[in-house]
Design goal:
9 helices; 3-stranded mixed sheet; 55% helix; 7 strands; elongated; 315 residues; two-stranded antiparallel ribbon
Length: 315
């Protein structure tokens, strides 16, 4: 915050010229820390960020800024926060994963998501409007889950080139990354199955709202904790580790970036699951649990006596 006084304030004459002469990237000019964005890649062939800025207080140019990777404020990134203890760094990701997977399990294995009105739910509908709505809902679900994978991508960057004071911090980070990545893929798979099993256009959009809630559970919980306890969600880049990683990247991976790896897997998963589901005309979850089913000889559920409605029990 720069103080600006009245016209006759002598401090004003010192501050305003600096503001006029500051470069376009003024946040870097006022600080010796530069935060990476989501578009920055640790595989880019560039030198560490050099910020040619003039400090308004010391008058000396900042020749090189400290690079920081900013993480998303979620329960998985808590593992790399310096304010979090060792036990909390390992427990926070597993608590978040258990909560998300539990909601996902109860949502996925409801009877109405696989079987309804005496018939198995099938991905191909005789109504073209419903098929179009299913396609749109699947694409929206993919976009939403991809945001969680982008958060995991930032966490992966920090683990590759970050500087950590405690030895356990990097181990906890890889543990959190594995849980976050696997949970995101599970959410994507279940969302594909429940959307393909929808029997109405309104039901398609109502089902993807559950995907939004599950994906944002860890973010909401972390923001709640951050409101009570100050937490830092950024990691300092180690220049030596950054150069070493780029050298290994050039020799082994040959141009395949981390961003590409994190985007290929979810798209390949949803395409493969969708093709198999359409080929057998069975929703992915039903195909996984019961195998291929059809409604050619569907059982007729008869209500005898009029006292109790028929009940379908899946064991």
């Amino acid at each position: 915050q720069l103080p600006v006084g009245k016209m006759d304030d002598p401090l004003r004459g010192d501050v305003l010229p600096w503001i006029r002469e500051a470069p376009a990237f003024s946040p870097g000019a006022r600080s010796d820390k530069v935060f990476w964005g989501r578009s920055d890649s640790i595989t880019d062939e560039r030198e560490p960020m050099m910020v040619a800025a003039v400090s308004p207080f010391g008058g000396q140019p900042l020749q090189e800024a400290i690079e920081m990777i900013e993480l998303e404020a979620d329960f998985y990134a808590l593992s790399l926060s310096p304010q979090v203890s060792c036990h909390a760094a390992f427990c926070a990701p597993i608590v978040s994963a258990i909560a998300q997977l539990s909601v996902l399990y109860f949502l996925a294995f409801q009877n109405e998501n696989m079987f309804e009105e005496g018939k198995w739910k099938q991905p191909i509908s005789p109504y073209w409007s419903l098929n179009v709505m299913k396609l749109i809902s699947i694409v929206v679900s993919l976009f939403k889950v991809s945001t969680e994978l982008q958060h995991a991508q930032q966490l992966c960057r920090a683990l590759f080139v970050g500087r950590f004071q405690e030895d356990f911090r990097q181990v906890a980070g890889w543990w959190a990354l594995a849980l976050q990545y696997s949970t995101a893929l599970c959410v994507l798979f279940v969302s594909l199955s429940i959307v393909l099993g929808a029997t109405s256009c309104v039901g398609c959009f109502l089902k993807i709202f559950s995907v939004f809630i599950i994906v944002d559970m860890d973010n909401l919980a972390a923001k709640f904790v951050n409101g009570m306890i100050f937490l830092e969600f950024h990691v300092t880049v180690d220049p030596e580790r950054l150069r070493a990683f780029r050298q290994r990247h050039r020799e082994r991976i040959k141009g395949i970036s981390i961003r590409t790896i994190f985007m290929i897997m979810p798209v390949a998963l949803i395409l493969l699951s969708g093709i198999v589901s359409l080929y057998f005309n069975t929703t992915p979850l039903t195909l996984l649990v019961f195998g291929q089913v059809d409604n050619v000889h569907a059982p007729k559920m008869i209500n005898i006596g009029g006292c109790c409605p028929p009940i379908l029990r899946l064991e």
